[in-house]
Write a structure and sequence with these properties.
This protein is mainly α and 64 residues long. It has one domain (2-61). It is 81% helix and 0% strand. The chain has helices at residues 2-21, 26-40, 45-61. The protein starts with a helix and ends with a helix.
Length: 64
């Protein structure tokens, strides 16, 4: 458990740095994807999934 939390935090910091610098390369996208997988395994996973689903539902109902 301690390793997964520290790994998740490390990936979060790396993703933040990559996005902050403005240049997202393939390796940076891989780190962001790994962050997503790491977050899905935490207790926040269901909450994040529900939030994304709700946002997608709201955006899907918008009319131009």
């Amino acid at each position: 458990m301690a390793i997964s939390i520290s790994l998740t935090l490390l990936l979060l910091v790396l993703a933040w740095i990559y996005v902050r610098n403005g240049g997202l390369k393939i390796s940076h996208a891989f780190v962001c994807a790994m962050l997503g997988f790491a977050l899905s395994g935490t207790s926040m996973g269901p909450t994040i999934q529900q939030g994304v689903a709700t946002t997608a539902d709201v955006v899907g109902k918008l009319t131009p």
